[in-house]
Amino acid sequence: MRIDIITGLPKMLDSFIYQSIMQRAQNKGLVEVVVHDLRDYSNNKARQIDDYQFGGGAGMVMMIEPIAKCIRKLQAERKYDEIIYMTPDGKRFEQRIANKLSLLQNIIILCGHYKGVDERVREHFITMELSIGDFVLSGGELAAAVVADAVVRLLPGVLSDETSALTDSFQDNLLAPPVYTRPADFEGWKVPDILLSGHEANIAEWRFQQSLERTKARRPDLLEE
Asked: Of the CATH numbers 3.40.718.10, 3.40.50.300, 3.40.1280.10, 3.30.70.100, which one belongs to the domain with range 2-152?
């Protein structure tokens, strides 16, 4: 899989790309993450990528020319399954979307900034618009990192135990059950006996019931879906 991230602030993504699961996945050749500096596609010496909005109003707007140049260059090199724009008014990013994206070969993620991008970018280039929540960030880099991380960890071979991702919260519209590790007794706080029983079927049933109760209490909306 290849993920191309287009941004005006590429250094914001350096630590994310070269750490933990993301670095391991790239070292294994399971994913290629490439960050593109949008300023390299600017039309002037000042490397400008934003301008005032027509009609007046506060805030700058990301210009269409640098974005179009970058996307078209990438499209000339390979076919992309999705061109994603990170924006507060996009569709809420959820686990099922991460699952879908993990099956694709090539995606582009465009990071918004300022008041957003020229609307013509959204009309003519973008195939999917995503938001990680009902709040506004200074830029789309953190949101792009969230999406990329959620997708990459689903790729076969990325996690040491490939079944781990399948038991995460939201995979079956339930929150994950409580988990415990050693010691079994810490200052009188004990691990539930069922988890020490070795009876796999009973443990699986206990975990399901715990997931169900936790979801009812914390996210009942998931059960309605």
From this structure: 3.40.1280.10
> Which residue reads 């670095």 in tokens?
23
Q: Model confidence over 77-101: pLDDT tens digits?
A: 999 999 999 999 999 999 999 999 9
- In angstroms, the CA 146 to CA 129 distance is 14
Sign of torsion, CA 93 86 27 31? positive
Mean pLDDT value across the chain:
93
Q: Which of 112, 113, 119 is nearest to 54 (CA)?
A: 119
Alpha-carbon distance values, 180 to 112, 186, 189, 192 (Å): 40, 11, 11, 9
54 backbone dihedrals φ, ψ, rounded to 5°: -60, 140
Question: Who has greater pLDDT, 36 or 222?
Answer: 36
Question: How sure is the predictor about 104, in pLDDT bands with cuts at 50, 70 and 90?
Answer: very high
Sorting pLDDT into bands at 50, 70 and 90, what band is 162? low
pTM exceeding 0.70? yes
Q: What is the DSSP letter of 117?
A: B
Q: How far apart, in whole angstroms, are the C-alpha atoms of residue 136 and residue 116?
A: 11
Give me the residues paired with residue 54 across strands: none
Fold observed for domain 169-224: Trp Operon Repressor; Chain A (1.10.1270)
